[in-house]
Structure formats: C-alpha cells, structure tokens
Design goal:
- The chain is an alpha/beta fold and 328 residues long.
- The chain has two domains: 163 residues, Glucose-6-phosphate isomerase like protein, domain 1 (Rossmann fold); 128 residues, 3-Layer(aba) Sandwich (Rossmann fold), CATH 3.40.50.10490.
- The strands form two sheets. A five-stranded parallel β-sheet has the order 2-1-3-4-5, sandwiched between helices. A four-stranded parallel β-sheet has the order 7-6-8-9, sandwiched between helices.
C-alpha cells in the first residue's frame, strides 16, 4: 500500500500529459442533460465527488447510486438523453456490469472509468476512460482512487470548466511535495491512539473525500470513523460525541474561518479535534484543488495507524481486491 501511495504523482502526471484524450470524450458527452453514476466502495465516493463537480462547475444534475438501484425489473428509465458512467477499478464487479447493461439497454450513452481497459465492464460500454495507474496489488484502493478523481476533474474541465486546468496542472507536483512529509501524518495517526470510534468532518465540497478517508480508516486500521459534512454533524450526529472522541477535521482552504469555528464548537463539547490543513501549500487556493491532496493525507494516516496497531494494511480482514457481493 505504501509503495502504491508513493506512485501517485507519477500516475497523475501520466494522465495530465494525455489530457487531449479528455477533449474528445468531453465533446462526445457534452450533449448529455442528465448523468447517472453507478459504483461501489471507493468508486462510489469518487462518483459523489463527480456529482459535486458537475453541478458546481457545469450546473448539470446527476444521480449517484449503487448498481442495485438500476436493476429493479419493475421500472423502466424514461431518460433518453442521458449518460451512464460506471466506475470500477477492476472492471470485474458483476453488479456494476449488469447495471451498465440495463442503462445501455434503456438508450443511454455509457462510459466505463476503469483501470482495466480490456475488462468486461469496458466491453459493455460505448466509451472507456482508462485510469492508466498500473497494477494495484494492495486491497485498499489508493492510486486508482486518485486517478479516478483526477480523470473526473479533467473530464469536467474539458466539458466546460477550463478555469480548472491551471490548478490541475499543478496537482502531480503538489502531490509529490505532500508525500515528502509523510512523518506528519504518522504523528496524526499516533494521536488517534487506541480509539475504536471517531468522526471525519469536512465542508460540503470535500464530503466525498471525508467518506473515502473514513473508508480507509475502516479498512486498514479497523477504526469506526463516521464521516459527516460539518453542518450535517450538528443536526443530530453530534449526540454521538463523547469526551475525548477524536474527530479528524479537514480545514477548508478557501474558508479557514469556518474551519476554526467548527474547531471551537468541538472543543466546547469535549471532542478531541485533530485538524488537517494544507496551509503551507500556497498553491492550493480552493477546495477543488484540495481534494486529491487531502486524499493522500488520509491514505497515509490509515497506513500508519494500521502499522501502529499491528494490522496489515495490504490485506484487511474479510476483504479481497475484487469484491463480489455475497448477497443475491
């Protein structure tokens, strides 16, 4: 897992160099009035991030759902001008393939985002966006997840948000800088101690990253870290907070004032706040540029916490690289 974490700057640079491929694809899908995403696990979190990007930059509505949602035999989709995007690093998950087949049969254009361009998923779609991340052997997704985020960012940028490109050009080198300071996240991991539960809190723009960070802590260190958007947390889940419960808090680069307000509120109720910020990286101007850097930080925290607890982050219990749901 650690080796694959370190490969990410090079992987992202490869996608950036080949960005002209996204121009053709963006032109082809640009007439879509509605987008449907289907995925599981880390890929599902990436789809939620894409949903935010599409609405924030292009004003396009989208649906994000697990494959089961689209496999109801009693209902027929009435949308004909839509685009269905299936995300799966392996391209082998049976339910995802069935869902994209059903959406294609309904008349939608289909796109596979996968690390295996020759997979069954890719063969069942009109177009394929290969992640080009190379073999990922550790069970927790690291480089395939950031490659998916970066690919989605590039697609949206060429779809109609060219203002994103300047920031995206800096992402590979920025990630390299972040990975040169891995010891800082080892310190954060040590501060989590032996806690068995906690929270991951983030602004709305980074909520999918909080979800992914929580998943990594679940998988690697068996820490039940519940993810919430800041405001959502104070509308009910705050009742779960007990004195000294740890909360990893993502500081929003373009709204540090709100971040500090949340820290004060957490301190007031006794929650042990562990803020994670990117202030020393001056090139990060907003939350969109922060998504991949924050992802890397979470991967490092999860990896170090697993080792501190005597876990093997490469092989989480009850999991395997290609997960086929043992239900139905």
């Amino acid at each position: 897992m650690f080796r694959e974490i370190l490969e990410q700057p090079e992987n992202l640079e490869r996608l950036w160099i080949g960005r002209n491929d996204f121009v053709r694809l963006a032109k082809k899908v640009s007439k879509s009035s509605m987008i449907y995403f289907t995925a599981f696990g880390s890929s599902y979190n990436a789809a939620l991030y894409a949903q935010y990007l599409l609405y924030h930059f292009l004003g396009l509505p989208s649906v994000v759902a697990t494959p089961t949602f689209f496999l109801n035999p009693r209902k027929k989709l009435r949308e004909k001008a839509g685009l269905a995007i299936a995300i799966s690093q392996s391209g082998k998950v049976h339910e995802v393939i069935l869902a994209i087949q059903a959406l294609r049969k309904a008349g939608l254009q289909t796109l596979a985002i996968t690390n295996n361009a020759n997979s069954d998923l890719a063969k069942n779609c009109h177009d394929v966006l290969p992640l080009q991340a190379g073999p990922e052997k550790s069970v927790p997704a690291t480089k395939t997840f950031t490659a998916t985020l970066f690919s989605l960012q590039l697609l949206v940028a060429h779809w109609g948000a060219k203002s994103m490109l300047r920031g995206l050009s800096q992402t590979p080198s920025l990630c390299q800088k972040i990975l040169e300071g891995t010891h800082e996240m080892k310190l954060v991991a040590s501060r989590l101690g032996t806690a068995t539960r906690g929270f991951v809190l983030a602004p709305e723009a980074l909520r999918p990253i909080a979800l992914e960070g929580s998943l990594k802590l679940n998988e690697c260190a068996y820490l039940m870290a519940e993810p919430f958007e800041w405001k959502e947390f104070f509308h009910g889940p705050v009742a779960l907070a007990e004195r000294e419960t740890p909360a990893l808090l993502l500081r929003q680069p373009d709204d540090l004032k709100s971040s500090f307000q949340v820290e004060k509120l957490l301190k007031k109720i006794g929650v042990r706040s562990l803020p994670i910020g990117l202030e020393r990286f001056k090139e990060i101007k907003d939350s969109n540029m922060a998504a991949i850097p924050f992802t890397l930080l979470f991967q490092l925290i999860a990896h170090h916490l697993a080792l501190l607890r005597g876990r093997n982050p490469d092989h989480p219990r009850h999991l395997q690289k290609v997960t086929q749901t043992p239900i139905g």
